[in-house]
Structures are given as structure tokens and as C-alpha cells.
Amino acid sequence: MMMPANYSVIAENEMTYVNGGASFIDAIGAVTAPIWNLDNVKAFSTNIVTLIGNNFITGTIQNTLGYVFSGHATKADLGTMFGKVVGADKFKAGQIGDGIAQILGSAAAIYNLGRTEVKNTAGDVKLFKTEPTPKYTIKKNGNSLEIWG
């Protein structure tokens, strides 16, 4: 079979080199594949979700349970507070990216609540406030001072 002078037959597995080599993602995969295994990827993913959830946990709790049990909850405002958790207020303002981030952050916070045990602060509550007492008592006795302690 006769071919033009500028034509050459190349095997399919060699086409990568002709087309410009590996992409950035392929290069990262080639470097990290020997180092990372499935356990590393799972730990990395879990840690990312935990970091995001930690950032959103306070707002999620305050806008849900905190608001309901605050003593100031009204039927009309419940939807507004829930809208802050799911990012509805961001979508109304046209901030689509922020709204999606709010949804994902709240989901990560809820994931954290289901994954770990929360701190019990019941033991930190003091029933009776105590004033600090001085370590020493100084009394004047005539022209001198007496120190008791």
C-alpha cells in the first residue's frame, strides 16, 4: 500500500505523545497513585467535609435548634431562619454560588453531628455563684496591721 511521504502509521497507545502528552490531572494522578490508596482518599474526603462542617456548625445550630428554643421563635420567622440554613436568602439575593455553598456547608455540619458525640457541658454549670475569697485578710489593730491567712 502506498502512503504519502508525510504520513506514518502510529499505534493507538502512542497517540498520547503525538497529541501533547498527559494533562495536568493525569500528571497528578501519576505522581500520587503510588502514594495514595483508597484509605487515604477516604480520610482526605472525610477531613474536608469535617473542616467545612466545623465552619458551619454554629450557624446551623443557632438558626435551627437555637432559634426554636430561644423563647423568641415566631411562626412567621421559622421559615426565614430555616432559609438561612439552606441558603434561600442567598438565592433570593442572586448569590447562587453562596447559596450552594450554604447548602453544602449545612449538610457537612449535619454530617458532623451524626458522626461524632457532642460535648456535654452540664458539668460546667454552677448552681450557686461564688465570689472569690481573698487568700489573706488584713486587719488594722491600733497602729499595726495583722495579716491572717
Instruction: Name the poorly predicted regions.
Output: none
Fraction of residues in H or I helices: 40-55%
Order of helices and strands: HHHHHHEE
Shape: elongated
Radius of gyration: 32 Å
Number of strands: 2
Structural class, by secondary structure, is: mainly alpha
Largest sheet: 2 strands, antiparallel
Arithmetic mean pLDDT: 78
Q: How much strand? A: 5-15%
Distance, first to last CA: 111 Å
Per DSSP, the total helix count is: 6
Adjacency order of strands in the biggest sheet: 1-2
What is the fold's blueprint, element by element?
Elements: H1 15-18, H2 24-32, H3 38-68, H4 75-86, H5 88-92, H6 96-115, E1 137-141, E2 144-148
Antiparallel strand pairs: 1-2
Helix pairs in contact: 3-4, 3-6
